[in-house]
Design a protein that fits this description.
Elements lengths: L3 H12 L11 E6 L2 E7 L4 H6 L7 E6 L4 E8 L12 E5 L18 H7 L3 E6 L8 E2 L14 H20 L3 E6 L1 H11 L7 E7 L11 H8 L2 H7 L4 E2 L3 H12 L6 H9 L10 H7 L4 E2 H8 L5
Parallel strand pairs: 5-6, 5-8, 8-9
Antiparallel strand pairs: 1-2, 2-3, 3-4, 4-6, 4-7, 10-11
């Protein structure tokens, strides 16, 4: 088993750079209230690379949580037929270290976001705090350690409740909910407190999590056993991992090298994947992985049974 220092050195080597502190605008927009209509879309946005090629319309919204985080949501109100949604809204909530992009990465016949839109549902995509399109705050910058002082508790109390309330208020309807991984955990936590129930029609929980002792990724197991996140937090790295802007291009370079199989790389991080389309690995790396709070990783690591 690798020792702590080797794992820590590997993460720090590939993650930390002097460019980590740079905050870049990821889009230019005209703002009307809390609705954002794109006027300039860069090549790596969800709209430009995933939605426009499918001849679909995407609306952007901003939602401010009670603790000051400014989150983005995307809405697909029309399917490929051009018919406006005539079925209830569906909120898609992603898991950890990703944003809303995975709901749209595959073909329209294989991506849940597109499938729902083409079947008449009003599709809403959530992006939790810290991810690329939800890095705003009323008083803090992602450069501030205080910006990253949260775990999935805050995602339950602030992010999820804000997303659900916003969709409910905008549409005037109860909504269907689809959560994946961490998106299931925050929903279950809310339900356990009898929160949000009156605004949901149904909830579909994909890969629901309660304990992590059965996770198949050796890399993840070792990181948890060595208290990697706790040590990073102690060293002052409040974003986990620090500097995805360095790591993601590095991983993409590896995947584009002849003879390398990116599905194997993902297996090392996530465990066995039955249904990964390896041809989409390059597209995936343009959008993922996304950062989270180190404190969130610490909290999740505590879900291993002793």
């Amino acid at each position: 088993m690798p020792n702590f220092s080797s794992v820590l050195n590997l993460l720090v080597l590939f993650s930390v750079s002097e460019n980590t502190a740079a905050i870049k605008k990821v889009f230019s927009a005209n703002v009307k209230g809390d609705i954002i209509i794109h006027s300039l879309i860069t090549d790596d946005t969800i709209c430009k690379s995933l939605v426009q090629p499918q001849d679909k319309k995407l609306l952007w919204f901003q939602v401010t949580t009670k603790d000051g985080y400014i989150l983005s949501m995307q809405r697909i109100p029309v399917g490929r037929s051009g018919k406006t949604a005539d079925k209830p809204p569906v909120l898609l909530q992603h898991g950890i270290l990703v944003d809303a992009a995975p709901w749209l990465l595959n073909s329209p016949e294989e991506s849940l976001g597109f499938i729902l839109a083409d079947n008449g549902f009003d599709v809403w995509l959530a992006n939790t705090r810290g991810t690329k399109y939800s890095r705003g705050h009323t008083s803090l910058s992602p450069n501030d350690s205080a910006y990253w002082e949260w775990s999935w508790d805050e995602l339950v109390h602030y992010d999820l409740s804000s997303f659900v309330q916003y969709v409910h208020d905008q549409t005037g309807q109860k909504l269907h909910y689809v959560g994946h991984s961490l998106g299931t955990l925050i929903a279950l936590a809310a339900f356990s407190k009898q929160e949000l129930l009156n605004m949901f029609r149904t909830a579909a929980l994909l890969s629901p999590i309660a304990y992590l002792d059965q996770i198949s990724s050796q890399l993840t197991k070792v990181a948890a056993q060595l208290y990697l996140a706790e040590e990073l937090y102690r060293l002052g790295y409040h974003q986990f991992p620090p500097g995805w802007d360095v790591l993601a291009p590095f991983l993409e370079k590896i995947c584009n090298t002849p003879g390398n199989n990116c599905s194997d790389l993902m297996t090392a991080m996530t465990g066995s994947n039955c249904c990964v389309n390896s041809s989409k690995a390059g597209v995936l790396l343009k959008h993922e992985p996304q950062p989270t709070a180190t404190k969130n990783i610490i909290h999740l690591s505590q879900k291993r049974e002793p």
